[in-house]
């Protein structure tokens, strides 16, 4: 016992030596009963309120041990404050002059040795934001000049998004982690511009928006430079006319500031340079109808002059068509190239010529824009060109795709053909340009038609026949401009079974013990036929067999009395409809030799009885006719 006390004392001293700040007994026992967090003065406070986050831990321990407590304050699951203490007093985390950024969900965690506890969360909401302040480094500028703009959110912290506005329209956005943002704004239009800003403090998942800042007015002065755009002719312009275009600069006298002129139409750059004037000429085409632009660039300033030009077509874009619309290889065809409209005041119809490309297309010109020949065996692309007064216009590509003649269709059945029941017939041609019209014919009379327009479609016809020879009367016709007939439909017709009979040999009334009995089951219909014989009262068949004949028999050898009863048969073929005969009553009579034997025995018994009777009669009569001498004894 004394040795154990020494060991515990030594352990305590060593623990104190190696952990001088920790005075917990090696055998300390404690429990963290509760951790709670509260906001003072309230969970909802206005801006600039001094807020205190109070964390209270209730810990029970054995004895007077001093426990090291590690407190951690978390805001939205992120650690914001930590402290280790041996005091049992509440932990206080101050938030002086609270701002919107301080809003969030707070929790408190306490750790003592290997035990941890976390409080429930408390949400702090700080309402109200300071008014933003806007400052500009200039109040009067020239157009195109930049101004430095600074927006400040006094006293705010955290992640802040600043918004800058020009004439009530948002023009920039900056996100920073400080309480101000600075940016540059370029004014491209003259006059008085009003600027202001606003900001949003982001506290995930919430955001708090400020009010509008003060308004700062900026005066933008125009620089005395003007672009001038001139286009000749001024009035109605036709294709083939020459367009003279000039882009020039009007500047103040004695001003030599560098400039850049750019002449363009849409996305096409026509001319550019640093001189005070650009000249450009072109032959007017219909595609030149639209807006021309003369652009002046002076440093960061851009000025634009625009004019619209309308070019009247001499003739419209030609169209190339084919007649007939569909052709087969080597069939005659006609290609017609034609411009639907022309400017008759500038162009005569005879001045417009047409050519076909490629020139070796095996088609011969037969008039203005008319080309004739025969379709090729494969697809071929054609275009035509209309030309007049140096203007050339080409049609869209016309692809002539000769139709592939349909091949002779195959006619098949998709299921078993059973007399009197519906079945499907498939008509299909292996080659041929779609669409293909398939017509089912019966004795060359149309029954139904299906049009196949897509490769995955099929021509399936549902029919019913009532006679076996009707099957060969069906044929199929395929037509895609060329017609082809199939062969006659060849398929096996299954006739359902009917008229089942059960024949007995020998005939009824002549069936005796020891005979051989034949039960012959017969039907009408298509073999193979599966026959089954049953005895009434027994669910399982006595015998089953499949035959390619319409009748077969079941033999019962060496008949006996117990074979008497009612019998019937069932039959089924590929039509899957079973038929059954009427029951037949079989009575097995006694064998003839048994009857003869019984008769002989009876006759023998009668003969023996008759003989005994005769003998008895004779013996009795003999005693009556003979009298022996009387004696005393006999007398007595």
TrEMBL record:
Signal peptide start and end residues: 1-26
Coiled coil regions in record: none
CDD domains named in the record: Ig
Tagged with keyword Cell wall biogenesis/degradation: no
Ig-like domain ranges (all copies): 132-195, 409-492, 500-587
Keywords: Disulfide bond, Glycoprotein, Membrane, Signal, Transmembrane, Transmembrane helix
InterPro entries in the cross-refs: Ig-like_dom, Ig-like_dom_sf, Ig-like_fold, Ig_Fc_receptor, Ig_sub, Ig_sub2, IL-40-like_Ig
GO terms, biological process: cell surface receptor signaling pathway; cell-cell adhesion via plasma-membrane adhesion molecules; immune response
Membrane spanning residue stretches: 596-617
GO molecular function, one term: transmembrane signaling receptor activity
Cellular component terms (Gene Ontology): external side of plasma membrane
Protein name stated in the entry: Platelet endothelial cell adhesion molecule
Annotated source species: Scomber scombrus
Lineage of the organism: Eukaryota, Metazoa, Chordata, Craniata, Vertebrata
């Amino acid at each position: 016992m004394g040795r154990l006390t020494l060991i515990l004392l030594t352990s305590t001293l060593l623990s104190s030596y190696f952990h001088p700040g920790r005075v917990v007994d090696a055998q300390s026992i404690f429990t963290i009963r509760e951790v709670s967090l509260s906001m003072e003065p309230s969970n909802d406070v206005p801006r600039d309120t001094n807020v205190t986050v109070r964390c209270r831990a209730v810990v029970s321990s054995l004895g007077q041990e001093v426990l090291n407590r590690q407190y951690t304050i978390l805001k939205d699951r992120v650690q914001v404050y930590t402290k280790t203490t041996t005091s049992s007093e509440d932990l206080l985390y101050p938030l002086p002059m609270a701002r919107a950024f301080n809003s969030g969900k707070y929790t408190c965690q306490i750790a003592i040795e290997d035990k941890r506890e976390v409080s429930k969360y408390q949400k702090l909401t700080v309402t109200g934001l300071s008014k933003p302040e806007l400052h500009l480094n200039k109040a009067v500028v020239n157009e195109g000049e930049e101004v430095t703009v600074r927006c400040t959110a006094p006293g705010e912290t955290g992640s802040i998004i600043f918004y800058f506005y020009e004439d009530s329209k948002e023009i920039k956005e900056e996100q920073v982690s400080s309480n101000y943002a600075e940016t540059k704004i370029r004014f491209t239009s003259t006059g008085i511009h009003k600027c202001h800003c606003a900001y949003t403090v982001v506290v995930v998942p919430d955001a708090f928006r400020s009010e509008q800042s003060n308004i700062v007015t900026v005066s933008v002065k125009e620089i005395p430079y003007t672009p001038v755009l001139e286009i000749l002719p001024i009035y109605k312009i036709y294709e083939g006319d020459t367009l003279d275009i000039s882009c020039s600069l009007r500047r103040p006298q004695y001003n030599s500031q560098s400039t850049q002129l750019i002449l363009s139409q849409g996305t096409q750059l026509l001319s550019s340079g640093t001189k005070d004037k650009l000249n450009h000429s072109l032959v007017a085409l219909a595609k030149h109808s639209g807006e021309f632009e003369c652009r002046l660039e002076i440093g960061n300033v851009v000025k634009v002059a625009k004019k619209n030009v309308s070019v009247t077509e001499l003739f419209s874009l030609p169209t190339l068509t084919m007649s007939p619309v569909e052709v087969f290889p080597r069939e005659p065809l006609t290609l017609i190239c034609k411009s639907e409209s022309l400017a008759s005041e500038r162009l005569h119809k005879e001045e417009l010529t047409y050519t076909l490309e490629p020139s070796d297309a095996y088609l011969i010109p037969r008039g203005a824009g008319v080309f004739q020949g025969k379709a090729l065996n494969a697809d071929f692309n054609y275009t035509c060109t209309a030309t007049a007064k140096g203007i050339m216009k080409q049609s869209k590509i016309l692809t002539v795709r000769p139709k592939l003649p349909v091949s002779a269709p195959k006619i098949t059945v998709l299921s078993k053909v059973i007399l009197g029941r519906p079945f499907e017939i498939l008509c299909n041609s292996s080659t041929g340009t779609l669409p293909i019209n398939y017509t089912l014919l019966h004795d060359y009379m149309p029954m139904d038609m299906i049009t196949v327009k897509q490769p995955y479609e099929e021509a399936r016809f549902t029919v019913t026949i009532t006679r076996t020879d009707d099957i060969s009367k069906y044929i199929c016709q395929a037509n895609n401009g060329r017609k082809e007939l199939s062969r006659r439909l060849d398929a096996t017709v299954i006739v359902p079974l009917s008229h089942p009979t059960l024949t007995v040999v020998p005939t009824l009334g002549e069936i005796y013990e020891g005979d051989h009995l034949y039960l012959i089951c017969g039907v009408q219909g298509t073999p193979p036929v599966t026959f089954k014989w049953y005895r009434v009262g027994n669910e399982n068949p006595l015998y089953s067999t499949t035959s390619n004949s319409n009748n077969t028999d079941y033999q019962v050898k060496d008949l006996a009395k117990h074979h008497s009863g009612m019998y019937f048969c069932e039959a089924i073929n590929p039509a899957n409809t079973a038929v059954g005969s009427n029951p037949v009553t079989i009575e097995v009579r006694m064998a003839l030799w048994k009857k003869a034997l019984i008769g002989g025995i009876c006759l023998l018994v009668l003969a023996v009885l008759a003989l005994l009777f005769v003998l008895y009669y004779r013996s009795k009569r003999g005693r009556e006719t003979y009298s022996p001498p009387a004696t005393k004894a006999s007398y007595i």
